[in-house]
Write a structure and sequence with these properties.
This protein is of the alpha/beta class and 313 residues long. It folds into two domains: 231 residues, Ribonuclease Z/Hydroxyacylglutathione hydrolase-like (Metallo-beta-lactamase, Chain A); 71 residues, Orthogonal Bundle (Arc Repressor Mutant, subunit A), CATH 1.10.10.10. The protein has nine helices and 14 strands. The chain has a seven-stranded mixed sheet. It has a five-stranded mixed sheet with strand order 8-9-10-11-12. Strands 13-14 form a two-stranded antiparallel ribbon. A hairpin with a 2-residue loop joins strand 13 and strand 14. Helix 7 packs across helix 9 and helix 8 crosses helix 9. The longest helix is centred in the C-terminal third of the chain and has 24 residues. The protein is globular. It starts with a strand and ends with a strand. The model has no long low-confidence stretch (mean pLDDT 92). The structure holds zinc ion (2 copies). The site of one zinc ion (ZN) has 7 residues, from helix 2.
Length: 313
């Protein structure tokens, strides 16, 4: 599916229902060369349509009638829905995988854990077995090259720049196609809604907000998110996400200032009508904000016998 002549999205059926937004896999193509941005899930139903799409690019649309040469598989972060298919796509195309050193380290930890986990059946049946099998497949993503903020690479005649955007994970990167002003953001910015930010060690809200501000400096004209539809008003989208997080923070500071600084009290105050199934995720978001505000000295944490209370310092 063409988004612009140089930017394609390669869909695949959702590997399992994890919400309405399947992960996006993009192909940047120029002068017969291509780079994948993210790789989708590792199961065959996800990988096969992507390979078929790449094969279909061979021919006149790839320029001068030659086969498309896939020069890179760029991975925004290590999560299964973005990184899972990378190894299988590398095996089929020979293209090198590039990712951030922090994500490479996290994948090597998964690899070490998977090697001790011999009880994953060849044909996983239950959801838990499938997840463990996918995690093991994802862990095969060893890096062929490392990418950090400021690094650039050429795809045909165009340049892709890596931007450090930690927060959703600590080594998340975004990618910027300079000639077209297109930002690929992985899970740092979604097409719809807001992404989950975990407190350390998995994520970091303070870094996340700095990452959004860093993306604002690029003046991109099109944003291709890790899930959901492309975003054309990039400046507005980024500002909305920043405003949303600032609003949460002021709600938290108000609650803490009123002596309502217990986690469960704040959850009820800030998310009064939340579906119970989303409560766990809301709690995580709140903890991520509390960690940020505490590290900035804006609140203090008091561990009492009756539980943790956040107070103004
Ligand atoms: Zn993710
Ligand atoms: Zn994702």
């Amino acid at each position: 599916m063409e988004i612009t002549p140089r930017v394609h999205s390669i869909p695949a059926p959702q590997a399992f229902y994890a919400g309405p937004q399947a992960p996006n896999v993009y192909l940047v193509v120029d002068a017969g060369h291509g780079a994948l941005i993210d790789a989708g899930y590792p199961d065959e139903a996800s990988v096969k349509p992507r390979l078929e799409y790449l094969h279909g690019m061979a021919g006149p649309s790839a320029g001068s009638g030659q086969a498309l040469k896939l020069s890179h598989i760029l991975v925004t972060h290590h999560h299964i829905d973005h990184c899972g298919g990378a190894h299988a796509l590398r095996q089929a195309t020979g293209a090198p995988i590039c990712l951030h050193p922090t994500e490479a380290r996290l994948l090597s930890e998964w690899r070490a854990a998977a090697s001790q986990n011999a009880d994953i059946p060849a044909e996983p049946q239950t959801m838990d077995e499938r997840l463990r099998a996918w995690r093991r497949a994802t862990a095969q993503t060893t890096p062929d090259c490392l990418l950090q903020g400021g690094d650039t690479l050429q795809v045909g005649g165009v340049t892709i720049e890596a931007i450090d955007t930690p927060g959703h994970t600590l080594g998340s990167i975004s990618l910027y196609l300079r000639e077209e002003g297109v930002l690929f953001t992985g899970d740092t910015v979604l097409g719809l809604g807001t992404v989950a930010i975990f407190p350390p060690p998995h994520g970091d809200m303070a870094l996340y907000m700095q990452s959004l501000e860093r993306l604002q400096t690029y003046d991109a004209t099109l944003l291709c998110p890790g899930h959901g539809p492309p975003v054309r008003d990039v400046a507005r989208k980024l500002q909305e996400l920043i405003d949303h997080r600032h609003e949460r923070e002021s709600q938290i500071l108000t609650a803490v200032g009123q002596g309502r600084g217990r986690l469960e009290t704040m959850l009820a105050d800030i998310y009064p009508e939340l579906d119970r199934r989303l409560l766990g995720m809301a709690r995580v978001q709140l903890l991520a904000h509390l960690h940020k505000l505490q590290s900035e000295g804006k609140i203090a944490r008091r561990d009492e016998t009756t539980g943790t209370l956040y107070v103004l310092p």
